[in-house]
């Protein structure tokens, strides 16, 4: 297994469940969305998906639901459940230690990305932050990572990407990321290195220099 590069042009991060524990907020918001319609959520919501992915699943149970109204309500519920989001273990130390350009590329809406990073005190730590509504196609398409690298002035083959979902890992691969760190079991087989958390010694001891 290749070691994480010691010289990089940029580090690109997913947000939900990679840098912050916000995936639980998505789950609670989706459960509330179904509950408001008098039904229990029993379908699987794609890990690392978008608001639109939730709407697609919702309309499988409620075919007459208006997509725009449903998306707006999901966004409201998501925002209500993000009030107590905290960084994942090891995330704060990592993003503060890095001195190279860094970006967030998330399937969350851009406004949610900025609200979450502001809440955890990271507003000035990233070169750029992108949400799914700010590119043509969300993950698993490569657009978010291509745009993040462009804004960082970096070639993707010289970037390290951190992802927790298979959907996100597929996006990083499609974009041509030079090195992919996957976190947890969902994308274990897709990364150049898989860790249980950002507290893994391979991450806590990593201090890349600008390539």
TrEMBL record:
It holds the Pfam family Hydrolase. Gene3D superfamilies: HAD superfamily/HAD-like, Putative phosphatase, domain 2. InterPro entries: HAD-like_sf, HAD-SF_hydro_IA, HAD_sf, PGP-like_dom2. This is HAD family phosphatase. It comes from Gleimia hominis.
């Amino acid at each position: 297994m290749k070691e994480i590069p010691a010289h990089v042009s940029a580090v690109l991060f997913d947000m939900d469940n990679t840098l912050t524990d916000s995936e639980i907020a998505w789950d609670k918001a989706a459960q509330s969305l179904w509950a408001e319609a008098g039904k229990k959520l029993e379908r699987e919501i794609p890990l690392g998906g978008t608001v639109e992915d939730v709407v697609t699943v919702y309309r499988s149970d409620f075919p007459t639901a208006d997509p725009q109204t449903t998306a707006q309500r999901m966004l409201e519920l998501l925002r209500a459940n993000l009030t107590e989001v905290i960084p994942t273990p090891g995330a704060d130390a990592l993003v503060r230690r890095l001195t190279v350009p860094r970006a967030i590329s998330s399937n969350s809406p851009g406004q949610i990305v900025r609200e979450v990073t502001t809440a955890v005190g990271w507003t000035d730590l990233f070169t750029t932050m992108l949400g799914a509504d700010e590119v043509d196609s969300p993950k698993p398409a490569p657009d978010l990572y291509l745009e993040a690298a462009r804004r960082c002035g970096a070639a993707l083959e010289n970037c390290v990407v951190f992802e927790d979902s298979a959907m996100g890992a597929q996006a990083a691969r499609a974009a041509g990321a030079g090195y992919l760190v996957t976190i947890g079991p969902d994308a274990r087989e897709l990364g150049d290195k898989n860790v249980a958390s950002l507290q893994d010694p391979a991450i806590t001891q990593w201090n890349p220099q600008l390539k």
